[in-house]
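can u do me a favor
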């Protein structure tokens, strides 16, 4: 993240007190802030941990990458899927059982593959010892089924949800969203994927052999204690918990076998707070083909790609055309090996990919619409706010009409230390980025999005339309910021 710390701890304390004083008109904000002002003051917390985060240990490549199982429907008309949140143990380190959470298993969850145009039914069951919710991140869904903090499922309880799939092909995900508890539940393993497919995705000539040349990659950084446990409370950071250990699909020290062919990687930043930058160790190009909510109009060649928490992207790496197959890996901007590749000599005859993937555009009408929703993101630690307020489930912050496009303007207000990047997420819809600081977004962000990275002192305009009615959350997707109240509600009527 781009923030810089040049101040002593005394200066940090002054900033925190000043921020709290400025919020005194909101009793629920100032009280919470004052009661927690001592938290996050250590040198491992606050802006410093994001300016110079813990460096990840490189993958040794000693373990085969786990591929999440595909969840098959257990009923038809509508297609029915059963998803169970549960507690368990997982062996990350040989001979050690780590206490974890998972969906339909001990850690992470399956891939739910659904088809645009069909009606689906989810039965969600909570077999954990604490309440949770099931949030369908990126799905266009009625507010009552979105899985926000209002829709808690108590231990031992189930909920059934039926809805039509009306959006285009995309890589989405699901995770918990209980008020004040999201960060820990995700940290301990609650996350799964949703693939939406449609007629267009089937005709594009893309790699589609699941787990072979169409591969999901959930990137998460974690820190294990001296007992190899995911002791969230020990490592919790109110500005986003950062770890030194990389897990991909829950695999420690993974490697991936690929053939000499184009391979589709569906990248998901499932971390609490760490940004992930992806590069090839040869610094050669790959192609980005999709954003959070669907395909780009055509592939965009890139040498590197950064995703903030909650963001997704699909890329194509053509392993038949790279300059070398020796010591080839996906690395980050520091050169740390994230995922080593082992390339087999087996060659295939891939389908020819189409040149045009989508017909996405921001219309001239959308570009000329006036701003009707203004949001200011500000603060750090337990004093993060949107428009000077922290989350209150009894308060509706905005009202919007169903099916009407409005322009939301989000400004990330810097503080005296420079500020932090905030990944802004809006529930229940996919939006268009109209502009970033008055300029068109880069080509690889000219597609459907539900999460957007906003740098300090940056202003982003979004074209937002909801297809369904209900109450939806908007918030920072640094999970500790979300838990600390950097969240609001829009009611769609």
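np, heres the sequence
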């Amino acid at each position: 993240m781009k923030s810089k710390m040049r101040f002593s701890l005394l200066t940090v304390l002054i900033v925190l007190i000043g921020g709290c004083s400025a919020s005194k008109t909101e009793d629920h904000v100032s009280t919470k802030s004052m009661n927690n002002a001592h938290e996050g003051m250590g040198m491992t917390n606050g802006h410093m941990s994001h300016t110079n985060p813990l460096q990840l240990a490189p993958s040794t490549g000693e373990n085969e990458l786990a591929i999440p199982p595909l969840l098959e429907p257990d009923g038809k008309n509508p297609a029915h899927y059963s998803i169970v949140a549960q507690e368990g143990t997982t062996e990350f380190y040989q001979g050690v059982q780590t206490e974890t959470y998972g969906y339909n298993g001990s850690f992470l969850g399956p891939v739910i593959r659904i088809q645009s145009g069909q009606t689906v039914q989810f039965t969600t069951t909570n077999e954990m010892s604490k309440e949770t919710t099931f949030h369908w991140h990126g799905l266009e869904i009625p507010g009552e089924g979105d899985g926000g903090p209002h829709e808690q499922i108590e231990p031992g309880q189930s909920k059934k949800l039926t809805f039509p799939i009306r959006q285009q092909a995309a890589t989405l995900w699901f995770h918990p969203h209980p008020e004040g508890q999201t960060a820990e539940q995700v940290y301990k393993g609650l996350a799964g994927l949703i693939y939406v497919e449609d007629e267009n995705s089937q005709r594009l000539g893309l790699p589609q052999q699941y787990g072979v040349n169409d591969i999901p990659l959930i990137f998460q950084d974690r820190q294990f204690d001296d007992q190899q446990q995911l002791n969230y409370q020990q490592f919790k950071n109110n500005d986003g918990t950062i770890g030194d250990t990389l897990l991909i699909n829950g695999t420690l020290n993974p490697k991936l076998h690929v053939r000499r062919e184009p391979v589709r990687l569906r990248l998901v930043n499932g971390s609490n707070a760490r940004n992930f930058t992806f590069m090839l160790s040869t610094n050669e190009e790959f192609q980005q083909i999709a954003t959070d909510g669907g395909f780009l109009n055509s592939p965009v060649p890139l040498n590197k790609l950064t995703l903030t928490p909650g963001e997704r992207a699909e890329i194509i790496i053509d392993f038949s055309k790279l300059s070398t197959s020796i010591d080839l890996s996906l690395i980050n901007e520091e050169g740390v090996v994230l995922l080593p590749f082992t390339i087999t000599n087996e060659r295939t005859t891939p389908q020819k990919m189409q040149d045009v993937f989508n017909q996405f555009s921001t219309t001239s009408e959308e570009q000329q619409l006036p701003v009707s929703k203004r949001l200011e993101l500000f603060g750090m630690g337990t004093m993060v706010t949107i428009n000077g307020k922290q989350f209150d489930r009894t308060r509706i912050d905005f009202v919007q009409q169903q099916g009407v496009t409005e322009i939301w303007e989000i400004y990330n207000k810097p503080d005296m230390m420079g500020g932090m990047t905030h990944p802004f997420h809006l529930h229940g819809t996919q939006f268009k980025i109209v502009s970033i600081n008055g300029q068109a977004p880069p080509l690889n962000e000219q597609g459907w999005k539900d999460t957007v990275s906003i740098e300090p002192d940056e202003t982003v305009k979004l074209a937002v339309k909801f297809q369904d009615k209900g109450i939806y959350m908007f918030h920072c997707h640094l999970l500790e910021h979300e838990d600390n109240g950097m969240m609001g509600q829009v009611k769609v009527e």
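The helical segments are 9-21, 27-35, 48-51, 182-187, 199-203, 232-235, 364-368, 479-483. hope that helps!!
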